Amino acid sequence: MLRLSGLAKTFPGGTIAVTGVDLEVRGSEFLTLLGPSGCGKSTILRLIAGLAAPSEGEIIWSDGVRPKIGFVFQEPTLMPWANVFANVYLPLRLAGLSRREAAPRIGAMLSRVGLGGFENAYPRELSGGMRMRVSLARALVADPPLLLLDEPFAALDEITRFALNDDLLVLQRELKTTIVFVTHSVFESVYLSQRVAIMSPRPGRIVGEIAIYSLEPRSADFRVSAPFADQAKQVSAALRDAMAVGYVP
Q1: Fold of 1-67+146-249
Q2: Which of 6, 65, 126, 242 is buried most deeply by CB count within 10 Å?
Q3: pLDDT tens digit string along 85-114?
């Protein structure tokens, strides 16, 4: 779907966030960027989304143009004054669809994320996991071929996180969406991904890629299997080696 070639980003204060990043993102895959905090994972997502411009290098799209992109941040970033329907409607409203035209799509997407019947609820009335489901629905309702997720489940309890991991895999399988996911959890990266790209400490760069093998479709059984444990050890060792590359303050 896209290729990052020699990508680098230096901020105005002189901080080099990422440098020399070379990475391919394949259509319909689940790719995770794994690395320590501050290594530039979120910066790469912002560069892909066009929210920031690279200082060096380029992003090459297979069709020559950036497609529609859904983006889910670590915080749900919902409009607190708007109900669930209005929050999910936002990207469709910006695309010019009327509420009447958008309503069937919004209802179907809310059902997909387990929030059917919550159209009139407000963010303050929802749990953290439910707010994140609204954020997922909003990102996916316009049917983007690429979904970027920046540590979306980091602040959630483990039970809720596991449930949302499973739901995300189902959504990805049903919608055929290409996903680039950011985390610093080895176990989450192995459970979700077809491929894990390991990043060094800042200035971040890709120092290794590991393919993850599992029976498909994945289920909770994979999380307690010997292959999961073995691959988690492999990814953990690769991350430990990446940390030895060094840190530039």
Answers
A1: Rossmann fold (3.40.50)
A2: 242
A3: 999 999 999 999 999 999 999 999 999 999
- Angle of CA points 174, 157, 126, to nearest 5°: 75
Name the H helices within 16-123: 41-49, 84-94, 99-112
Is 179:2 a contact under the CB 8 Å cutoff? no
Read off the pLDDT of residues 6-61 as tens digits, 9 standing for 90 and up: 999 999 989 999 999 999 999 999 999 999 888 999 999 999 999 999 999 999 99
Residue with tokens 């999380």: 223
CA–CA separation, 152 and 138 (whole Å): 14
Tokens of 44: 């790469």
139: CB partners within 8 A, 6+ apart? 70, 71, 72, 91, 147
Three-class DSSP category at 142: coil
Span between the terminal Cα atoms of the chain, in Å = 33
pTM beyond 0.90, yes or no: yes
**For the chain, what are the domain ranges?**
1-67+146-249, 76-144
Count the residues in the chain. 249
Cα-based angle 139, 34, 223 (whole degrees, multiple of 5): 85
The CB-side HSE value for 91 (13 A sphere, CA atoms) comes to 20
CA distance 151 to 128: 14
CA distance 85 to 19: 41
Instruction: Name residue 126's beta-bridge partners.
Output: none
